[in-house]
Amino acid sequence: MEMKNIFANIPKDLDEEVLEQLVKSEHISIERILSKGHQSPESGWYDQEQNEWVMIVAGEAILSFDDGSDMTMRKGDYINIPAHKKHKVKWTDPEIETIWLAVFY
Amino acid sequence: MEMKNIFANIPKDLDEEVLEQLVKSEHISIERILSKGHQSPESGWYDQEQNEWVMIVAGEAILSFDDGSDMTMRKGDYINIPAHKKHKVKWTDPEIETIWLAVFY
User: Fold this and answer.
1) What is the pLDDT of residues B23-54, one digit of tens each?
2) Is the CB of residue B7 less than 8 Å from the CB of residue B34?
């Protein structure tokens, strides 16, 4: 059993979003996602097979949903996005790294 | 979809550990656990049917394992504890709340 830290090993160069799988099993995966000013492409709705519980560990982001609503998420905020609930990342803080913790199940 | 915050609604009175289930599905549960100076009883090994991925969101704790080893965990530290790996909480910070985020799967 190895202990790691969610704030460690953040690349200096975040030209693209960085996904790191922390746990992968038959039914779930746990991922750390690093963003810095990234957003989904205009047409890029996520339409996922799995439910996603996601929390902002650091930084700030705005999620958009296909009903036209936006949700601003700050440190410690979490939501549970049901499978096939279309959503996208409208904005992430361009100044600091946003660390997402996502559980897909 | 309701947004909540992992740092919110922390009871002033933490005489006992407080568990809050954030997600429950067929295969997983996600829980917030609040500790403040709590520890497992001397004989109280956890011997769980499920794997547990657990992270310290705030505070500090020491986990003990039945091979005699201890692990000090601080903010952002996470480990993956396999099912039936016996462990217990040896110590949590008595001065501030320790917030654990646990995914049982």
Assistant:
1) 999 999 999 999 999 888 777 899 999 999 99
2) no
